[in-house]
Amino acid sequence: MSGELLVRRFYDELWNEWRLDVADEILADDFDFRGSLGSVEHGRDAFKRYVELVRAAFPDWHNQVDELFTAGDERVVARLTWTGTQRGPLGDVAPTGNRVSYVGVGLFTVSADVIQRAWIVGDTQELWRGLGRLGPQSS
Length: 139
Prior knowledge:
Layout: H1 3-15, H2 21-26, E1 27-34, E2 40-42, H3 44-57, E3 62-70, E4 75-85, E5 99-111, E6 114-122, H4 124-130
Parallel strand pairs: 1-6
Antiparallel strand pairs: 1-2, 3-4, 4-5, 5-6
């Protein structure tokens, strides 16, 4: 399976459809993830727990792949727009009911027909502004 197809499934099926079973098909057992919210997860099961935390905070979370391209045989880059309405707590931020939107990129390493690593970098200042906070530590 191509790296681009794996990354599409990562966003379209795993995240947008909340199909955690897809993780077992497309992620390495020892999958390494670093997310925009500062989360660092090692292993497929830890990553699934992270997805559930995001889902609890933003049940309508949507990952729009704005652009997708490969960089060599094992690298895939996605330019993304994330949107969602905060309905549950996000760390120490109580549910606001605010709809947020912010942009970023995902850098993926693919080999042996699975995603080995993902490093996600987003404009989290825009996320925090959308939640009525200047940053994760502001009051």
